[in-house]
UniProtKB/TrEMBL annotation:
SUPFAM superfamilies: CheY-like. The keyword Ligase does not apply. The modification 4-aspartylphosphate is found at D53. This is Two-component system, cell cycle response regulator DivK. One of its GO terms (biological process) is phosphorelay signal transduction system. InterPro entries: Bact_response_regulator, CheY-like_superfamily, Sig_transdc_resp-reg_receiver. It comes from Sphingomonas gellani. PROSITE patterns: RESPONSE_REGULATORY. Keywords: Phosphoprotein. Residues 4-120 form the Response regulatory domain. Signal peptide: none annotated.
Amino acid sequence: MLGSILIIEDHPVHAKLFGDMLRVHGHTSMVAATGSTGLILAQEMEPAVIVVDIKLPDVDGREVIARLRADPATRHIPVLAISAMADNGLQDDCTLAGADRFVSKPISLHAFTGAVTQLRDAPRWR
């Protein structure tokens, strides 16, 4: 396996689709349906990449990203932000919060797995 990916996504169909896309490319994945659960799992599992949906039921995805970046235990983990609301302002907000990449929904297999692979393989400071 190439590395574990944490998917923070509240929509079960999307979460399964993302997990299936990653599995085809040799990744294992874990899903958190809320931002709060995702933050806990990020510390526990130390994933290779974290995928964060921006619209979550408990905490805005941008806040999740900001908290990941503020925590010494998770700040080095690459973050891919995803959202169906794909305007430039949102992409800028995600970048300011600390996201490394942004992919808009609907997500193509190539764009999603390519972004995850690039983030996983990029050198990071711990």
